[in-house]
Protein backbone atom coordinates (compact mmCIF):
# COMPACT_ATOMS: atom_id res chain seq x y z
CA UNK A 1 0.00 0.00 0.00
CA UNK A 2 2.83 2.41 0.82
CA UNK A 3 4.50 1.83 -2.55
CA UNK A 4 1.20 2.29 -4.38
CA UNK A 5 0.64 5.54 -2.49
CA UNK A 6 4.10 6.80 -3.51
CA UNK A 7 3.33 6.10 -7.16
CA UNK A 8 -0.07 7.79 -6.93
CA UNK A 9 1.43 10.89 -5.28
CA UNK A 10 4.11 11.09 -7.94
CA UNK A 11 1.61 10.92 -10.78
CA UNK A 12 -0.57 13.61 -9.21
CA UNK A 13 2.40 15.93 -8.61
CA UNK A 14 3.76 15.37 -12.12
CA UNK A 15 0.43 16.12 -13.74
CA UNK A 16 -0.13 19.27 -11.68
CA UNK A 17 3.36 20.72 -12.13
CA UNK A 18 3.54 19.97 -15.86
CA UNK A 19 0.14 21.55 -16.46
CA UNK A 20 1.19 24.73 -14.65
CA UNK A 21 4.63 24.76 -16.25
CA UNK A 22 3.07 24.58 -19.69
CA UNK A 23 1.55 27.98 -18.98
CA UNK A 24 4.99 29.33 -18.13
CA UNK A 25 6.41 28.43 -21.55
CA UNK A 26 3.35 29.37 -23.57
CA UNK A 27 1.98 32.77 -24.44
CA UNK A 28 -1.76 33.34 -24.46
CA UNK A 29 -2.24 32.67 -28.19
CA UNK A 30 -0.23 29.42 -27.97
CA UNK A 31 -3.12 27.67 -26.24
CA UNK A 32 -5.21 27.91 -29.40
CA UNK A 33 -2.46 27.51 -32.02
CA UNK A 34 -1.01 24.29 -33.40
CA UNK A 35 2.52 25.66 -33.06
CA UNK A 36 1.82 26.37 -29.41
CA UNK A 37 0.25 22.99 -28.68
CA UNK A 38 2.68 20.80 -30.63
CA UNK A 39 5.93 22.86 -30.44
CA UNK A 40 5.45 25.04 -27.33
CA UNK A 41 5.61 28.18 -29.44
CA UNK A 42 9.20 27.33 -30.54
CA UNK A 43 10.64 28.86 -27.37
CA UNK A 44 12.11 25.86 -25.52
CA UNK A 45 15.73 25.88 -24.24
CA UNK A 46 18.12 23.24 -25.56
CA UNK A 47 18.89 21.71 -22.17
CA UNK A 48 15.22 21.01 -21.43
CA UNK A 49 14.59 19.63 -24.90
CA UNK A 50 17.71 17.45 -24.60
CA UNK A 51 16.68 16.01 -21.26
CA UNK A 52 13.22 15.40 -22.69
CA UNK A 53 14.68 13.57 -25.69
CA UNK A 54 16.74 11.40 -23.33
CA UNK A 55 13.69 10.57 -21.24
CA UNK A 56 11.75 9.73 -24.39
CA UNK A 57 14.48 7.33 -25.51
CA UNK A 58 14.28 5.74 -22.07
CA UNK A 59 11.05 3.88 -22.69
CA UNK A 60 9.70 1.71 -19.86
CA UNK A 61 11.03 -1.32 -21.73
CA UNK A 62 14.56 -0.05 -21.07
CA UNK A 63 14.73 -1.40 -17.52
CA UNK A 64 13.89 -4.99 -18.49
CA UNK A 65 15.74 -4.80 -21.83
CA UNK A 66 18.97 -3.18 -20.69
CA UNK A 67 19.16 -5.02 -17.38
CA UNK A 68 18.35 -8.21 -19.26
CA UNK A 69 21.39 -7.53 -21.44
CA UNK A 70 23.57 -6.36 -18.54
CA UNK A 71 23.00 -9.58 -16.63
CA UNK A 72 24.50 -11.62 -19.50
CA UNK A 73 27.12 -9.07 -20.57
CA UNK A 74 28.32 -7.45 -17.36
CA UNK A 75 29.90 -4.05 -16.86
CA UNK A 76 30.53 -3.55 -20.57
CA UNK A 77 26.80 -3.28 -21.30
CA UNK A 78 27.54 0.45 -21.56
CA UNK A 79 28.98 -0.24 -25.01
CA UNK A 80 25.54 -1.36 -26.13
CA UNK A 81 23.91 1.99 -25.46
CA UNK A 82 27.00 3.92 -26.53
CA UNK A 83 26.89 2.17 -29.91
CA UNK A 84 23.21 3.04 -30.26
CA UNK A 85 23.26 6.70 -29.31
CA UNK A 86 26.75 8.23 -29.58
CA UNK A 87 26.84 8.97 -33.27
CA UNK A 88 23.11 9.04 -33.95
CA UNK A 89 22.36 11.82 -31.47
CA UNK A 90 25.48 13.93 -31.94
CA UNK A 91 25.85 13.77 -35.73
CA UNK A 92 22.17 14.55 -36.19
CA UNK A 93 22.51 17.56 -33.88
CA UNK A 94 25.78 18.92 -35.26
CA UNK A 95 25.07 18.49 -38.98
CA UNK A 96 21.29 18.58 -39.43
CA UNK A 97 19.62 20.30 -36.45
CA UNK A 98 20.33 23.86 -37.59
CA UNK A 99 19.22 23.01 -41.14
CA UNK A 100 15.89 21.63 -39.96
CA UNK A 101 15.33 24.65 -37.73
CA UNK A 102 16.16 27.07 -40.54
CA UNK A 103 13.86 25.67 -43.24
CA UNK A 104 10.78 26.42 -41.14
CA UNK A 105 8.92 23.10 -41.17
CA UNK A 106 6.86 21.72 -38.28
CA UNK A 107 7.52 18.00 -38.86
CA UNK A 108 9.99 15.82 -40.73
CA UNK A 109 7.63 14.71 -43.52
CA UNK A 110 6.73 18.35 -44.24
CA UNK A 111 10.19 18.74 -45.79
CA UNK A 112 8.82 16.85 -48.82
CA UNK A 113 6.91 19.92 -49.99
CA UNK A 114 10.24 21.77 -50.26
CA UNK A 115 12.42 18.98 -51.71
CA UNK A 116 10.03 17.23 -54.13
CA UNK A 117 7.64 18.44 -56.81
CA UNK A 118 3.82 18.60 -56.77
CA UNK A 119 2.10 15.24 -56.40
CA UNK A 120 5.43 13.59 -55.63
CA UNK A 121 5.72 15.72 -52.51
CA UNK A 122 2.15 14.94 -51.48
CA UNK A 123 2.68 11.18 -51.83
CA UNK A 124 5.96 11.24 -49.90
CA UNK A 125 4.55 13.43 -47.15
CA UNK A 126 1.39 11.36 -46.73
CA UNK A 127 3.03 7.95 -46.87
CA UNK A 128 5.94 9.09 -44.72
CA UNK A 129 3.63 10.28 -41.96
CA UNK A 130 1.32 7.28 -42.06
CA UNK A 131 4.15 4.74 -42.13
CA UNK A 132 5.98 6.49 -39.30
CA UNK A 133 2.89 6.26 -37.13
CA UNK A 134 2.09 2.64 -37.97
CA UNK A 135 5.62 1.19 -38.24
CA UNK A 136 7.40 3.22 -35.56
CA UNK A 137 5.13 5.02 -33.15
CA UNK A 138 2.54 2.32 -32.58
CA UNK A 139 5.08 -0.50 -31.98
CA UNK A 140 7.17 1.62 -29.61
CA UNK A 141 4.16 2.60 -27.53
CA UNK A 142 3.24 -1.07 -27.36
CA UNK A 143 6.77 -2.04 -26.35
CA UNK A 144 6.73 0.64 -23.66
CA UNK A 145 3.47 -0.60 -22.20
CA UNK A 146 4.77 -4.16 -22.30
CA UNK A 147 7.83 -2.99 -20.38
CA UNK A 148 5.61 -1.60 -17.64
CA UNK A 149 3.81 -4.92 -17.41
CA UNK A 150 7.03 -6.97 -17.29
CA UNK A 151 8.22 -4.99 -14.26
CA UNK A 152 5.06 -4.24 -12.31
CA UNK A 153 3.14 -7.52 -12.65
CA UNK A 154 5.61 -9.70 -10.67
CA UNK A 155 5.81 -7.13 -7.89
CA UNK A 156 2.04 -6.92 -7.44
CA UNK A 157 1.60 -10.60 -8.23
CA UNK A 158 -0.69 -10.62 -11.26
CA UNK A 159 -0.29 -11.87 -14.84
CA UNK A 160 -3.02 -10.22 -16.91
CA UNK A 161 -1.74 -7.50 -19.24
CA UNK A 162 -5.22 -5.98 -19.20
CA UNK A 163 -4.72 -4.94 -15.56
CA UNK A 164 -1.56 -3.03 -16.49
CA UNK A 165 -3.37 -1.25 -19.32
CA UNK A 166 -6.26 -0.25 -17.06
CA UNK A 167 -3.79 1.24 -14.57
CA UNK A 168 -1.63 3.15 -17.05
CA UNK A 169 -3.70 4.27 -20.05
CA UNK A 170 -6.36 6.58 -18.56
CA UNK A 171 -3.79 8.70 -16.71
CA UNK A 172 -1.56 8.97 -19.79
CA UNK A 173 -4.30 10.05 -22.15
CA UNK A 174 -5.88 12.51 -19.75
CA UNK A 175 -2.53 14.08 -18.93
CA UNK A 176 -1.51 14.56 -22.57
CA UNK A 177 -4.93 15.90 -23.60
CA UNK A 178 -4.46 18.78 -21.17
CA UNK A 179 -0.72 19.48 -21.31
CA UNK A 180 0.41 19.67 -24.93
CA UNK A 181 4.10 19.54 -25.88
CA UNK A 182 5.27 22.10 -23.29
CA UNK A 183 3.77 20.00 -20.53
CA UNK A 184 5.35 16.88 -22.01
CA UNK A 185 8.84 18.41 -21.86
CA UNK A 186 8.46 19.64 -18.29
CA UNK A 187 7.07 16.29 -17.21
CA UNK A 188 9.98 14.54 -18.92
CA UNK A 189 12.39 16.57 -16.80
CA UNK A 190 10.58 15.45 -13.65
CA UNK A 191 10.60 11.86 -14.91
CA UNK A 192 14.36 12.09 -15.46
CA UNK A 193 14.95 13.26 -11.90
CA UNK A 194 12.87 10.40 -10.49
CA UNK A 195 14.57 7.81 -12.72
CA UNK A 196 18.03 8.97 -11.61
CA UNK A 197 16.99 9.02 -7.93
CA UNK A 198 15.51 5.52 -8.18
CA UNK A 199 18.62 4.24 -9.93
CA UNK A 200 20.89 5.87 -7.37
CA UNK A 201 18.88 4.30 -4.54
CA UNK A 202 19.24 0.90 -6.20
CA UNK A 203 22.98 1.37 -6.71
CA UNK A 204 23.47 2.33 -3.07
CA UNK A 205 21.29 -0.57 -1.87
CA UNK A 206 23.40 -3.06 -3.81
CA UNK A 207 26.63 -1.64 -2.37
CA UNK A 208 25.16 -1.73 1.15
CA UNK A 209 24.06 -5.32 0.57
CA UNK A 210 27.61 -6.43 -0.29
CA UNK A 211 29.60 -3.91 1.74
CA UNK A 212 31.66 -1.92 -0.78
CA UNK A 213 32.65 -1.71 -4.47
CA UNK A 214 35.63 -3.99 -3.81
CA UNK A 215 33.38 -6.50 -2.03
CA UNK A 216 31.08 -6.46 -5.03
CA UNK A 217 34.00 -7.45 -7.25
CA UNK A 218 35.18 -10.13 -4.82
CA UNK A 219 31.73 -11.72 -4.72
CA UNK A 220 31.51 -11.74 -8.52
CA UNK A 221 34.89 -13.47 -8.65
CA UNK A 222 33.71 -16.00 -6.07
CA UNK A 223 30.36 -16.84 -7.67
CA UNK A 224 31.50 -16.56 -11.32
CA UNK A 225 35.08 -17.72 -11.06
CA UNK A 226 35.33 -18.60 -14.75
CA UNK A 227 33.30 -15.72 -16.19
CA UNK A 228 34.24 -12.95 -13.75
CA UNK A 229 36.90 -11.36 -16.04
CA UNK A 230 34.29 -10.90 -18.77
CA UNK A 231 31.63 -9.66 -16.34
CA UNK A 232 33.95 -7.04 -14.78
CA UNK A 233 35.63 -5.96 -18.01
CA UNK A 234 34.94 -2.48 -19.38
CA UNK A 235 35.09 -3.90 -22.90
CA UNK A 236 32.78 -6.68 -24.17
CA UNK A 237 34.23 -10.14 -24.60
CA UNK A 238 34.59 -11.72 -28.04
CA UNK A 239 33.22 -14.94 -26.62
CA UNK A 240 29.93 -13.48 -25.42
CA UNK A 241 27.02 -14.89 -27.43
CA UNK A 242 24.73 -11.93 -26.76
CA UNK A 243 26.98 -8.90 -27.26
CA UNK A 244 30.57 -8.68 -28.48
CA UNK A 245 32.80 -6.15 -30.31
CA UNK A 246 31.32 -7.14 -33.66
CA UNK A 247 27.87 -6.24 -32.35
CA UNK A 248 29.15 -2.77 -31.42
CA UNK A 249 29.99 -2.18 -35.08
CA UNK A 250 26.69 -3.64 -36.27
CA UNK A 251 24.55 -1.56 -33.91
CA UNK A 252 26.62 1.53 -34.68
CA UNK A 253 25.81 1.07 -38.37
CA UNK A 254 22.13 0.33 -37.82
CA UNK A 255 21.40 3.30 -35.60
CA UNK A 256 23.87 5.84 -37.01
CA UNK A 257 23.61 5.61 -40.79
CA UNK A 258 21.03 8.12 -41.93
CA UNK A 259 20.82 9.86 -38.53
CA UNK A 260 19.39 13.35 -38.89
CA UNK A 261 18.38 12.98 -42.53
CA UNK A 262 14.82 12.44 -41.38
CA UNK A 263 13.40 13.48 -38.02
CA UNK A 264 10.69 12.18 -35.72
CA UNK A 265 10.52 12.68 -31.95
CA UNK A 266 13.91 14.35 -32.08
CA UNK A 267 12.37 16.75 -34.57
CA UNK A 268 9.95 18.14 -32.01
CA UNK A 269 12.91 18.90 -29.74
CA UNK A 270 14.91 20.52 -32.53
CA UNK A 271 12.07 22.50 -34.10
CA UNK A 272 10.78 23.79 -30.76
CA UNK A 273 14.14 25.33 -29.78
CA UNK A 274 14.49 29.10 -29.51
CA UNK A 275 17.18 29.32 -32.20
CA UNK A 276 19.08 27.16 -34.68
CA UNK A 277 22.18 27.38 -32.48
CA UNK A 278 20.20 26.08 -29.50
CA UNK A 279 19.01 23.19 -31.67
CA UNK A 280 22.61 22.00 -32.18
CA UNK A 281 22.99 21.57 -28.40
CA UNK A 282 20.03 19.23 -27.98
CA UNK A 283 22.06 16.12 -28.84
CA UNK A 284 24.74 16.89 -26.24
CA UNK A 285 22.23 17.36 -23.43
CA UNK A 286 20.32 14.28 -24.55
CA UNK A 287 23.41 12.07 -24.62
CA UNK A 288 24.59 13.15 -21.18
CA UNK A 289 21.19 12.76 -19.53
CA UNK A 290 20.49 9.45 -21.27
CA UNK A 291 23.79 7.84 -20.29
CA UNK A 292 23.39 9.02 -16.69
CA UNK A 293 20.02 7.30 -16.46
CA UNK A 294 21.21 4.13 -18.19
CA UNK A 295 24.18 3.81 -15.85
CA UNK A 296 21.90 4.18 -12.85
CA UNK A 297 19.64 1.44 -14.21
CA UNK A 298 22.23 -1.11 -15.37
CA UNK A 299 25.09 -0.96 -12.85
CA UNK A 300 23.10 -2.58 -9.99
CA UNK A 301 22.69 -5.75 -12.08
CA UNK A 302 26.21 -6.68 -10.96
CA UNK A 303 24.64 -7.45 -7.58
CA UNK A 304 21.93 -9.58 -9.16
CA UNK A 305 24.58 -11.74 -10.82
CA UNK A 306 25.79 -12.65 -7.35
CA UNK A 307 22.38 -13.49 -5.89
CA UNK A 308 21.01 -15.01 -9.10
CA UNK A 309 23.97 -16.46 -11.04
CA UNK A 310 21.66 -18.57 -13.22
CA UNK A 311 20.60 -15.44 -15.14
CA UNK A 312 24.04 -15.18 -16.75
CA UNK A 313 22.96 -17.93 -19.16
CA UNK A 314 19.22 -17.17 -19.26
CA UNK A 315 17.11 -16.93 -22.43
CA UNK A 316 16.02 -13.48 -23.70
CA UNK A 317 12.50 -13.65 -22.27
CA UNK A 318 13.76 -14.98 -18.92
CA UNK A 319 16.58 -12.49 -18.41
CA UNK A 320 14.21 -9.56 -18.95
CA UNK A 321 12.60 -10.48 -15.61
CA UNK A 322 15.78 -9.61 -13.70
CA UNK A 323 14.87 -5.94 -13.34
CA UNK A 324 11.70 -6.72 -11.38
CA UNK A 325 13.58 -9.29 -9.28
CA UNK A 326 16.30 -6.74 -8.58
CA UNK A 327 13.79 -4.18 -7.35
CA UNK A 328 12.21 -6.74 -5.04
CA UNK A 329 15.56 -7.96 -3.73
CA UNK A 330 17.25 -4.68 -2.88
CA UNK A 331 14.69 -1.93 -2.31
CA UNK A 332 12.71 -1.55 0.93
CA UNK A 333 9.10 -0.43 1.13
CA UNK A 334 8.77 3.23 0.22
CA UNK A 335 11.97 3.31 -1.81
CA UNK A 336 10.44 0.59 -3.97
CA UNK A 337 7.58 3.00 -4.55
CA UNK A 338 10.04 5.53 -5.97
CA UNK A 339 11.39 2.85 -8.32
CA UNK A 340 7.86 1.98 -9.43
CA UNK A 341 7.22 5.68 -9.97
CA UNK A 342 10.35 5.73 -12.14
CA UNK A 343 8.92 2.91 -14.24
CA UNK A 344 5.71 4.86 -14.69
CA UNK A 345 7.84 7.91 -15.46
CA UNK A 346 9.74 6.11 -18.21
CA UNK A 347 6.45 4.92 -19.70
CA UNK A 348 4.91 8.37 -19.59
CA UNK A 349 8.02 10.10 -20.94
CA UNK A 350 8.08 7.96 -24.06
CA UNK A 351 4.41 7.35 -24.65
CA UNK A 352 3.33 10.96 -24.17
CA UNK A 353 6.05 12.15 -26.55
CA UNK A 354 5.14 9.57 -29.17
CA UNK A 355 1.45 10.36 -28.90
CA UNK A 356 2.15 14.09 -29.10
CA UNK A 357 4.24 13.75 -32.25
CA UNK A 358 1.93 11.19 -33.85
CA UNK A 359 -1.06 13.45 -33.40
CA UNK A 360 0.98 16.34 -34.84
CA UNK A 361 1.78 14.21 -37.91
CA UNK A 362 -1.88 13.42 -38.42
CA UNK A 363 -2.90 17.07 -38.24
CA UNK A 364 0.07 18.66 -40.03
CA UNK A 365 0.77 16.08 -42.75
CA UNK A 366 -2.37 13.97 -43.19
CA UNK A 367 -5.20 16.47 -42.65
CA UNK A 368 -3.95 19.97 -43.49
CA UNK A 369 -2.70 19.13 -47.04
CA UNK A 370 -6.18 17.87 -47.97
CA UNK A 371 -8.32 20.27 -45.91
CA UNK A 372 -6.94 23.73 -46.52
CA UNK A 373 -9.63 25.53 -44.50
CA UNK A 374 -8.94 23.61 -41.28
CA UNK A 375 -8.68 26.04 -38.37
CA UNK A 376 -5.95 25.66 -35.77
CA UNK A 377 -8.53 25.03 -33.06
CA UNK A 378 -9.98 22.20 -35.13
CA UNK A 379 -6.47 20.88 -35.75
CA UNK A 380 -5.74 20.67 -32.03
CA UNK A 381 -9.02 18.83 -31.43
CA UNK A 382 -8.29 16.32 -34.22
CA UNK A 383 -4.83 15.77 -32.76
CA UNK A 384 -6.28 15.02 -29.35
CA UNK A 385 -8.84 12.55 -30.70
CA UNK A 386 -6.22 10.79 -32.83
CA UNK A 387 -4.27 9.90 -29.69
CA UNK A 388 -7.01 7.48 -28.67
CA UNK A 389 -6.86 5.72 -32.05
CA UNK A 390 -3.06 5.40 -31.90
CA UNK A 391 -3.20 4.04 -28.37
CA UNK A 392 -5.79 1.43 -29.37
CA UNK A 393 -3.48 0.15 -32.12
CA UNK A 394 -0.55 0.03 -29.69
CA UNK A 395 -2.44 -2.26 -27.34
CA UNK A 396 -2.21 -5.00 -30.01
CA UNK A 397 1.59 -4.97 -29.65
CA UNK A 398 1.25 -5.55 -25.91
CA UNK A 399 -0.49 -8.87 -26.52
CA UNK A 400 1.58 -9.88 -29.58
CA UNK A 401 5.14 -9.41 -28.34
CA UNK A 402 7.03 -11.76 -26.00
CA UNK A 403 10.56 -10.25 -26.04
CA UNK A 404 11.22 -6.51 -25.77
CA UNK A 405 14.67 -6.66 -27.35
CA UNK A 406 13.39 -8.82 -30.18
CA UNK A 407 10.53 -6.42 -30.90
CA UNK A 408 12.94 -3.49 -31.14
CA UNK A 409 15.04 -5.43 -33.66
CA UNK A 410 11.99 -6.20 -35.81
CA UNK A 411 11.04 -2.51 -35.95
CA UNK A 412 14.64 -1.54 -36.71
CA UNK A 413 14.76 -4.15 -39.46
CA UNK A 414 11.75 -2.66 -41.21
CA UNK A 415 13.04 0.91 -41.03
CA UNK A 416 16.84 0.81 -41.15
CA UNK A 417 17.26 -0.35 -44.79
CA UNK A 418 15.92 3.01 -46.02
CA UNK A 419 17.86 5.17 -43.57
CA UNK A 420 20.56 6.38 -45.94
CA UNK A 421 18.00 7.89 -48.29
CA UNK A 422 17.51 10.54 -45.62
CA UNK A 423 21.12 11.62 -46.05
CA UNK A 424 20.77 11.31 -49.80
CA UNK A 425 17.95 13.84 -50.09
CA UNK A 426 20.07 16.42 -48.26
CA UNK A 427 23.48 15.71 -49.77
CA UNK A 428 22.70 14.79 -53.38
CA UNK A 429 20.48 16.42 -55.96
CA UNK A 430 19.54 13.18 -57.76
CA UNK A 431 17.16 11.43 -55.27
CA UNK A 432 13.57 11.60 -56.47
CA UNK A 433 10.19 10.06 -55.78
CA UNK A 434 11.28 6.79 -57.43
CA UNK A 435 14.43 6.43 -55.35
CA UNK A 436 12.34 7.31 -52.29
CA UNK A 437 9.83 4.56 -53.11
CA UNK A 438 12.67 2.10 -53.68
CA UNK A 439 14.10 2.89 -50.24
CA UNK A 440 10.99 3.40 -48.12
CA UNK A 441 8.69 0.80 -49.63
CA UNK A 442 11.34 -1.54 -51.02
CA UNK A 443 13.48 -1.49 -47.86
CA UNK A 444 11.12 -3.57 -45.70
CA UNK A 445 10.58 -5.94 -48.64
CA UNK A 446 14.36 -6.34 -48.96
CA UNK A 447 14.61 -7.01 -45.22
CA UNK A 448 11.95 -9.72 -45.32
CA UNK A 449 13.39 -11.23 -48.51
CA UNK A 450 16.92 -11.31 -47.10
CA UNK A 451 15.60 -13.14 -44.06
CA UNK A 452 13.85 -15.68 -46.27
CA UNK A 453 16.88 -16.42 -48.47
CA UNK A 454 19.41 -16.45 -45.63
CA UNK A 455 17.45 -19.25 -43.98
CA UNK A 456 18.14 -21.34 -47.08
CA UNK A 457 21.88 -21.16 -46.41
CA UNK A 458 22.98 -24.18 -44.30
CA UNK A 459 25.52 -22.19 -42.26
CA UNK A 460 22.94 -19.52 -41.41
CA UNK A 461 20.38 -22.12 -40.38
CA UNK A 462 22.98 -23.85 -38.21
CA UNK A 463 23.64 -20.58 -36.39
CA UNK A 464 19.92 -20.00 -35.90
CA UNK A 465 19.68 -23.38 -34.20
CA UNK A 466 22.34 -22.31 -31.68
CA UNK A 467 19.78 -20.52 -29.50
CA UNK A 468 17.75 -17.32 -29.00
CA UNK A 469 20.81 -15.15 -28.33
CA UNK A 470 22.37 -16.08 -31.66
CA UNK A 471 19.04 -15.49 -33.42
CA UNK A 472 19.01 -11.89 -32.20
CA UNK A 473 22.63 -11.38 -33.29
CA UNK A 474 21.83 -12.70 -36.76
CA UNK A 475 18.75 -10.47 -36.90
CA UNK A 476 21.01 -7.47 -36.34
CA UNK A 477 23.42 -8.66 -39.05
CA UNK A 478 20.46 -9.20 -41.38
CA UNK A 479 19.52 -5.54 -40.92
CA UNK A 480 23.00 -4.39 -42.01
CA UNK A 481 22.88 -6.62 -45.10
CA UNK A 482 19.43 -5.23 -45.96
CA UNK A 483 20.69 -1.66 -45.55
CA UNK A 484 23.53 -2.28 -48.01
CA UNK A 485 21.28 -3.88 -50.64
CA UNK A 486 18.59 -1.22 -50.32
CA UNK A 487 21.11 1.61 -50.61
CA UNK A 488 22.58 0.17 -53.81
CA UNK A 489 19.08 -0.19 -55.26
CA UNK A 490 17.85 3.34 -54.55
CA UNK A 491 21.12 4.90 -55.77
CA UNK A 492 20.78 2.99 -59.06
CA UNK A 493 17.16 4.10 -59.39
CA UNK A 494 18.15 7.73 -58.73
CA UNK A 495 20.78 7.54 -61.47
CA UNK A 496 18.48 5.86 -63.99
CA UNK A 497 15.47 8.14 -63.55
CA UNK A 498 14.89 11.88 -63.92
CA UNK A 499 15.60 14.05 -60.87
CA UNK A 500 12.91 16.28 -59.39
CA UNK A 501 11.88 19.45 -61.22
CA UNK A 502 14.82 21.86 -61.41
CA UNK A 503 12.77 24.83 -60.21
CA UNK A 504 11.84 22.92 -57.04
CA UNK A 505 15.46 21.90 -56.49
CA UNK A 506 16.66 25.48 -56.95
CA UNK A 507 14.16 26.79 -54.39
CA UNK A 508 15.22 24.07 -51.95
CA UNK A 509 18.88 24.91 -52.51
CA UNK A 510 18.28 28.59 -51.76
CA UNK A 511 16.30 27.84 -48.61
CA UNK A 512 18.14 24.83 -47.12
CA UNK A 513 21.67 25.61 -48.33
CA UNK A 514 22.51 21.88 -48.44
CA UNK A 515 26.04 20.50 -48.47
CA UNK A 516 27.25 17.70 -50.68
CA UNK A 517 26.77 17.00 -54.37
CA UNK A 518 24.52 19.76 -55.72
CA UNK A 519 26.70 20.97 -58.61
CA UNK A 520 24.08 21.18 -61.41
CA UNK A 521 21.58 22.89 -59.11
CA UNK A 522 24.19 25.35 -57.85
CA UNK A 523 25.10 26.28 -61.42
CA UNK A 524 21.43 26.77 -62.29
CA UNK A 525 20.96 29.05 -59.28
CA UNK A 526 24.05 31.06 -60.21
CA UNK A 527 22.76 31.33 -63.78
CA UNK A 528 19.67 33.02 -62.32
CA UNK A 529 21.94 35.64 -60.78
CA UNK A 530 21.71 34.31 -57.21
CA UNK A 531 24.74 33.72 -55.01
CA UNK A 532 23.98 31.28 -52.18
CA UNK A 533 26.81 31.18 -49.66
CA UNK A 534 27.32 27.70 -48.18
CA UNK A 535 30.12 26.74 -45.80
CA UNK A 536 32.24 23.95 -47.25
CA UNK A 537 33.02 20.63 -45.58
CA UNK A 538 30.36 21.08 -42.88
CA UNK A 539 29.70 17.34 -42.93
CA UNK A 540 33.36 16.60 -42.17
CA UNK A 541 33.61 19.30 -39.51
CA UNK A 542 30.43 17.93 -37.92
CA UNK A 543 31.97 14.47 -37.82
CA UNK A 544 35.14 15.97 -36.36
CA UNK A 545 33.07 17.64 -33.62
CA UNK A 546 31.26 14.39 -32.80
CA UNK A 547 34.43 12.46 -31.95
CA UNK A 548 35.74 14.49 -28.95
CA UNK A 549 32.25 15.11 -27.53
CA UNK A 550 31.44 11.39 -27.67
CA UNK A 551 34.87 10.50 -26.29
CA UNK A 552 34.45 12.86 -23.35
CA UNK A 553 31.01 11.54 -22.39
CA UNK A 554 32.09 7.92 -22.91
CA UNK A 555 35.13 8.42 -20.66
CA UNK A 556 32.78 9.59 -17.92
CA UNK A 557 30.56 6.54 -18.40
CA UNK A 558 33.47 4.09 -18.36
CA UNK A 559 35.16 5.86 -15.45
CA UNK A 560 32.03 5.85 -13.28
CA UNK A 561 31.36 2.21 -14.19
CA UNK A 562 34.88 1.25 -13.10
CA UNK A 563 34.43 3.25 -9.89
CA UNK A 564 31.27 1.31 -9.02
CA UNK A 565 33.13 -2.02 -8.92
CA UNK A 566 36.21 -0.67 -7.15
CA UNK A 567 38.58 -0.41 -10.12
CA UNK A 568 39.94 2.84 -8.74
CA UNK A 569 43.04 3.17 -10.93
CA UNK A 570 41.08 2.69 -14.16
CA UNK A 571 38.38 5.03 -12.92
CA UNK A 572 40.88 7.76 -12.01
CA UNK A 573 42.67 7.58 -15.35
CA UNK A 574 39.43 7.76 -17.32
CA UNK A 575 37.88 10.57 -15.29
CA UNK A 576 41.07 12.65 -15.36
CA UNK A 577 41.43 12.16 -19.12
CA UNK A 578 37.83 13.31 -19.56
CA UNK A 579 38.70 16.86 -18.41
CA UNK A 580 41.07 17.91 -21.24
CA UNK A 581 38.92 15.96 -23.70
CA UNK A 582 35.92 18.06 -22.68
CA UNK A 583 37.88 21.28 -23.23
CA UNK A 584 38.96 20.14 -26.69
CA UNK A 585 35.38 19.08 -27.47
CA UNK A 586 34.03 22.51 -26.53
CA UNK A 587 36.51 24.34 -28.77
CA UNK A 588 35.83 22.11 -31.78
CA UNK A 589 32.06 22.31 -31.25
CA UNK A 590 32.19 26.13 -31.09
CA UNK A 591 34.30 26.26 -34.26
CA UNK A 592 31.89 23.96 -36.08
CA UNK A 593 28.75 25.89 -35.07
CA UNK A 594 30.34 29.14 -36.25
CA UNK A 595 30.99 27.49 -39.63
CA UNK A 596 27.34 26.42 -39.77
CA UNK A 597 26.23 30.02 -39.41
CA UNK A 598 23.60 28.95 -36.87
CA UNK A 599 22.12 31.91 -35.01
Automatic annotation (TrEMBL):
Keyword Transmembrane: yes
Matching PROSITE patterns: NA_SOLUT_SYMP_3
InterPro entries: Na/Glc_symporter_sf, Na/solute_symporter
Keywords: Membrane, Transmembrane, Transmembrane helix
Entry's Gene Ontology molecular function annotations: D-glucose:sodium symporter activity
Listed transmembrane segments: 79-98, 132-156, 162-182, 189-208, 242-265, 285-306, 330-351, 387-413, 433-454, 475-496, 537-564, 571-589
Major localization class: membrane
Bilayer topology term: Multi-pass membrane protein
Gene Ontology cellular component annotations, sorted alphabetically: plasma membrane
UniProt subcellular location: Membrane
Record flagged with keyword Membrane: yes
Family: Belongs to the sodium:solute symporter (SSF) (TC 2.A.21) family.
Protein's name in the database: Putative symporter YidK
Gene coding for it: yidK
Amino acid sequence: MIDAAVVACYLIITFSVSAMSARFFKKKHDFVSEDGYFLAGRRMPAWLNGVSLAATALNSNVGPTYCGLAVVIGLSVCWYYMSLFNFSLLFAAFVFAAKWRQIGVSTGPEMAKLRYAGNNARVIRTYGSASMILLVMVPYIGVGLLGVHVVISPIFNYESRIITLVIVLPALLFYLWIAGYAGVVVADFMHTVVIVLAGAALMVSVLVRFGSPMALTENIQRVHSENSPAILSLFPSWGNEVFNPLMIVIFLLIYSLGAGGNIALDGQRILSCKTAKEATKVGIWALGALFLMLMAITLPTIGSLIDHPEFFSASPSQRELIYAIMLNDYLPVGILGIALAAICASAMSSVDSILSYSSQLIVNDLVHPFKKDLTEKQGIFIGRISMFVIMALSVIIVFWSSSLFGTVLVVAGLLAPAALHGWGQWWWWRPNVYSWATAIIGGPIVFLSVGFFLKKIPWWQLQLDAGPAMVQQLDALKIVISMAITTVLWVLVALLTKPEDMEVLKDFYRKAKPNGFWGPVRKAVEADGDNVEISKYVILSGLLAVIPVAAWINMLVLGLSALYVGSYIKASLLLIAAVPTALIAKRIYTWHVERLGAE
